[in-house]
Amino acid sequence: MFEKLELVRMAQAMARHAGARTDVIARNVANSDTPGYRARDLPDFESYAEGRTGLRGTRAGHLRSAAAVAAEPVPAGIMGTASPNGNSVSLEEEMVKAVSARQQHEMALSIYQSSSRLIRTSLGRSS
After folding, report:
1. pTM score of the predicted model
2. Domain definitions of the chain by residue range
3. Which 3 state secondary structure label does DSSP give 58?
4. Where's the Flagellar basal body rod protein N-terminal domain (predicted)?
5. Per-residue pLDDT tens over the stretch 53-62
6. 121 by DSSP, 3-state: which?
């Protein structure tokens, strides 16, 4: 029942995006000592959400979905210089990104819980 509401679908997509971004951040941190490793990140959720209404493939291999494109980690811009071994991971930046992803996930859960509570109240089921 809830899956048909656009707000709920958007909250679910936001939670999936935050989870995928957390995975990319974890890979960056795990490779922080790997020579030549370039930090990666996902496009922000807003660009992912805007892409959801674009063209859609009708069969496998036709068009890649916006979800598939948005879930691909892209090299993050290097904000300064890479380390002498060519690694561009900054643990400080990754910590900030991790906090941002956690906040995005918490917001998605809050939206989902609020909409669920609102629907239950409107149906007369407050518990």
Report:
1. 0.74
2. 2-122
3. coil
4. 20-38
5. 455 555 665 5
6. helix
